[in-house]
Amino acid sequence: MATLTTTTTTTAATATPTRARLKGVVFDMDGTLTVPVIDFAAMYKAVLGDDEYRRIKAENPSGIDILHHIENWSPEKQQKAYETIADYERRGLDRLQIMPGAAELCGFLDAKKIRRGLITRNVKEAVDLFHQRFGLTFGPALSREFRPYKPDPGPLLHICSAWEVLPNEVMMIGDSLKDDVACGKRAGAFTCLLDETGRYDSPDYANVDLKPDFKVSSLTEVYSLLEEHFDLAP
Ligand SMILES: [Mg+2]
User: Fold this and answer.
1) What GO terms fall under cellular component here (predicted)?
2) What is the pTM of this model?
């Protein structure tokens, strides 16, 4: 069952007497539209080394922003890091699977004439493969080549302006608190965290200030959440 976090319950009751209009939904790709196949912890360790990985992890309880950490490395070291990341992503592509409920949710959004966009920190090649393999198209679909990337609100604001809608008429859905929810919040959009395993209920996240507006454990919970909390009339 979809849960509404306490923060929004309060806001919704006092400041939003009518249901908000929803004109678009923007999805993260890896772990949201596709089943998680990339072992991010192993990837970070391979890039950073064990000691550095542990140090950075301790300093960043909500998660490591690997692209940010390598941004200021020397060109040679950075090149090697990008190759390691690309290697993990490539292995992920071979086992790519669509997330249960994703196709049905897209059908629901299409029926309601709600736009669908995509923002990923993965490369364009992976987005192209995703589009081809599953026959679902998202537009705009922004990949790592679009700068700045998530958690910067830039890509989401870009999509809103391409759609000619306001950020508060859009929902960002993703499985990463630090990237997807942060990007959505900073842009002023609604946010929905997909937490299939309940990992965000762990005490590690108790002191993390960032909270999504909604949290679901499956994409199949999203329709009822949208119908209950939003005005979906075209
Ligand atoms: Mg993800």
Assistant:
1) chloroplast
2) 0.83
What CA–CA distance (Å, rounded) separates 15 from 200? 27
Give distance in angstroms: CA of 121 to centre of ligand 1: 8
Active site residue 28: yes
Of 234, 9, 109, nearest to 118 (Cα)? 109
Q: Taking the domains of the chain in order of start, what are their residue ranges? A: 3-36+98-231, 40-94
DSSP category for residue 129: H
Q: Are 197 and 35 in contact (CB under 8 A)?
A: no
CA 74 to chain centre: 29
Asked if residue 121 lies in contact with residue 144, where contact means CB atoms within 8 angstroms, the answer is: yes
pLDDT tens profile 164-182 = 999 999 999 999 999 999 9
Of 119, 103, 94, whose CA–CA distance to 175 is shortest? 119
Residues with CB under 5 A from ligand 1 (ion): 28, 30-31, 175-176
Length in residues, the chain: 234
Q: Is 30 assigned a catalytic role?
A: yes
* Cα 15 to middle of ligand 1, angstroms: 31
What is residue 74's three-state secondary structure?
Answer: coil
Question: Hey, what are 190's tokens?
Answer: 């609604």
Helices (H) and strands (E) in the chain, counts: 10, 9
- The two structure tokens encoding residue 14: 């006092």
The distance in angstroms from the start CA to the end CA of the chain is 26
pLDDT at 5: 53
Measure 29 CA to ligand 1 centroid, in angstroms.
Answer: 6
